[in-house]
């Protein structure tokens, strides 16, 4: 019980917002090269129940460096997986058309899982993939409190309330199809950022064998406000923007910290 209370305290939104001043004072935020992004599009996919506002700092950081961030159109990411994926693919296609080339998908938590599904299904639209605290190895492996909310939403959906997570997304053919798709090899460079201090998603579930898995020491809700996350993303996104990282392996990495992308 006490472990659960400690996790809940660590993962409060109010506590995450305390990290904002630290991020704004950090050199990774203050030193910006406006030409770094080279106009590369980035679609931002929020986590379960978080909404677009949760990735506002990421959008501001990207825009200041010459990237072109855009909304994914998935709202609070609480709906049916198939419907959310359809919306994300539509937004990704539109942003790729708007920027004139494939885009980066940057998703947090469930949003990262949706981004991975989109990248596996339409690699022609995706230049690179960033997942923040995303349980891609088991989308139902999150904290029990999160699962209770998800099941409550599914009950509301079965009672006729539209736009919510469907029970089929947690069991049955729809769930099995998406779990299978989450295990598909990636054909784009990818990074999965995880934290052992994550009180929502067990860090082991973020160990995507087809991504570069990198550890930070953030909470789950605070990951988008952690300077270390931006320190990690800075050189990787810059390499994607300039085309210096193009090659990738089609087989899983041998360890959780081994990158699958190589310079070439």
UniProtKB/TrEMBL annotation:
<dbReference type="GO" id="GO:0016787">
    <property type="term" value="F:hydrolase activity"/>
</dbReference>
<dbReference type="InterPro" id="IPR029058">
    <property type="entry name" value="AB_hydrolase_fold"/>
</dbReference>
<protein>
    <submittedName>
        <fullName>Alpha/beta hydrolase</fullName>
    </submittedName>
</protein>
<feature type="domain" description="Serine aminopeptidase S33">
    <location>
        <begin position="95"/>
        <end position="157"/>
    </location>
</feature>
<keyword id="KW-0378">Hydrolase</keyword>
<dbReference type="InterPro" id="IPR022742">
    <property type="entry name" value="Hydrolase_4"/>
</dbReference>
<dbReference type="Pfam" id="PF12146">
    <property type="entry name" value="Hydrolase_4"/>
</dbReference>
